[in-house]
């Protein structure tokens, strides 16, 4: 199976190499702002001509394809960036490609061709707020034989903080090919991500016949239908005391803004505190990512079928009392990782419909409660007398859903690793909310849900 896979490594550059990395990322930002300014000027000119009644065929042409922008950049780079020769051409291509992608997404969102939240018109990138990033697609991109260095165009050989043996083995065997490399600065450290085409061997989960339901929550990170409870480490909550202290300290320093909104040179102590704050945030993000990867990898490599819920994260985060705790879990990331990891490991992922009442349904008799308060952590069935932990009951209902999916659709794309969503797609609304008037429950015990394949 040939897949696209990324390998990410922390870099350990020398001061000269760190300056070169920053220069390339700055060049990408300059090219992005130049391309965006050019397109905005053309759009404004076209709008003015339309207001004067100029015929359509005589209006100013606005072309934001990557080819058109690169051609215009090559003609204007001596004036726009006289120092352009100091960096690789890939740096400027990164910025221009970013403009093309941003404008394409904006147009697709306006015309309805792009699903999800509306995308606004792109904005200029600030030197102080934008994340430094640069992408290389051509030139010398390789992992050195010593497995402790990587080579990038114009940047040379840079040492890594960890071994690159996993990627090096694929390259040596001929089962992998590097497509691109992206350098990025996060939390005061430089990282490189190699996007590769990898030939992965066909795998089978350790227990291919077993089904596991996964109920994600805030009290516990996940409760499995097997009875296992995965504790929520709450990394952000643990670091909250330090974050508050650093934010208060940052407010006392002389920052880049004056009280009246003007600009000034920030003090050295402000820069030092700002760097410490960024490192703390990055540490929390890395800890959360590592924990989620360990959980999803174990689920995908152990169970043949994994069942999760289609949670409305935007609606859940609208609750100001629970938004911080919900965001600290990373529920959306769990589903994203399970989507491709189950495919890689030969399993399947079933995504329950957003309106499926997994918490309100009794896992013993199938009775559905009309209401279930969030404070009720123990599920008590008035029909059969079942008393069970609320999250475990939901996980058991999710696991039982896999049998209904198999009976109603048989062999589907989902059985080969894709994602299947039982039930019709619901409108965006906070998860676990009461159904709107006129809508019925997507499944009752003993019936089969409607299925749609999601490719």
Shape verdict: globular
Share of residues in helices: 40-55%
Number of strands: 16
Relative strand content? 15-25%
Structural class based on helices, strands and sheet pairing? alpha+beta
The biggest beta sheet, please? 7 strands, mixed
In DSSP terms (H or I, runs of 4 or more residues), the helix count works out at 10
- The rounded distance between the terminal residues' Cα atoms is 17 Å
Low-confidence stretches: 410-437, 439-455
Q: Rg to the nearest angstrom?
A: 26 Å
Mean pLDDT comes to: 87
Order of helices and strands: EHHHEEEEHEEEEEHHEHHHEEEHEE
Q: How would you write the strand order of the largest sheet? A: 10-9-8-11-12-15-16
- What is the chains' assembly state? single chain
Short synopsis of the structure:
This protein has helices at residues 15-51, 66-80, 89-111, 165-173, 235-252, 268-302, 313-317, 323-329, 331-344, 390-409, and strands at 2-10, 133-136, 142-143, 149-152, 156-159, 176-186, 189-199, 207-216, 220-224, 229-231, 303-309, 348-352, 378-380, 387-389, 419-422, 451-454. It has 455 residues and is α+β, with helices and mostly antiparallel strands.
């Amino acid at each position: 199976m040939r897949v696209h896979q990324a390998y990410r490594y922390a870099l350990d550059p020398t001061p000269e190499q760190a300056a070169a990395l920053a220069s390339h990322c700055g060049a990408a930002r300059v090219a992005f702002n130049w391309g965006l300014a050019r397109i905005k000027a053309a759009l404004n000119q076209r709008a003015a001509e339309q207001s004067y009644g100029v015929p359509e065929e005589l209006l100013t042409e606005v072309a934001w394809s990557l080819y058109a922008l690169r051609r215009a950049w090559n003609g204007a780079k001596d004036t726009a960036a006289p120092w352009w020769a100091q960096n690789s051409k890939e740096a400027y291509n990164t910025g221009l490609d970013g403009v093309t992608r941003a404008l394409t997404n904006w147009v697709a969102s306006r015309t309805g061709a792009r699903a999800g939240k509306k995308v606004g018109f792109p904005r200029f990138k600030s030197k102080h707020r934008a994340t430094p990033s640069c992408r290389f697609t051509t030139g010398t991109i390789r992992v050195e034989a010593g497995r402790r260095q990587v080579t990038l165009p114009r940047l040379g050989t840079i040492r890594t903080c960890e071994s690159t043996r996993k990627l090096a083995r694929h390259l040596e065997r001929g089962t992998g090919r590097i497509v691109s490399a992206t350098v990025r600065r996060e939390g005061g450290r430089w990282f490189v991500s190699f996007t590769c085409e990898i030939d992965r061997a066909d795998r089978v989960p350790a227990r291919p016949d077993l089904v596991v339901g996964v109920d994600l929550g805030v009290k516990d990170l996940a409760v499995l239908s097997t009875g296992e409870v995965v504790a929520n480490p709450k990394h952000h909550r643990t670091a909250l005391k330090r974050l508050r202290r650093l934010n208060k300290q940052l407010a006392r320093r002389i920052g880049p803004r004056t009280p009246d909104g003007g600009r000034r040179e920030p003090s050295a102590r402000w820069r030092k505190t700002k760097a410490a704050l960024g490192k703390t945030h990055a540490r929390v993000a890395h800890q959360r990512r590592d924990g989620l990867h360990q959980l999803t990898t174990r689920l995908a490599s152990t169970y043949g079928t994994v069942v999760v819920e289609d949670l409305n994260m935007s609606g859940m985060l609208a609750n100001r009392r629970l938004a911080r705790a919900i965001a600290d879990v990373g529920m959306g990331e769990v589903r994203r990782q399970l989507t491709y990891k189950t495919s890689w490991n030969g399993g399947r992922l079933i995504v329950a419909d957003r309106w499926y009442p997994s918490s309100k349904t009794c896992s013993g008799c199938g009775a559905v409660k009309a209401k279930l308060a969030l404070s009720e952590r123990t599920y008590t069935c008035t029909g059969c007398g079942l008393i069970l932990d609320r999250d475990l009951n939901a996980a058991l209902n999710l696991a039982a859903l896999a049998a209904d999916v198999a009976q109603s659709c048989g062999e589907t794309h989902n059985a080969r690793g894709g994602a299947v969503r039982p039930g019709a797609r619901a409108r965006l609304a906070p998860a676990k909310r009461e159904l709107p008037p006129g809508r019925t429950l997507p499944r009752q015990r003993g019936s089969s849900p409607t299925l749609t394949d999601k490719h």
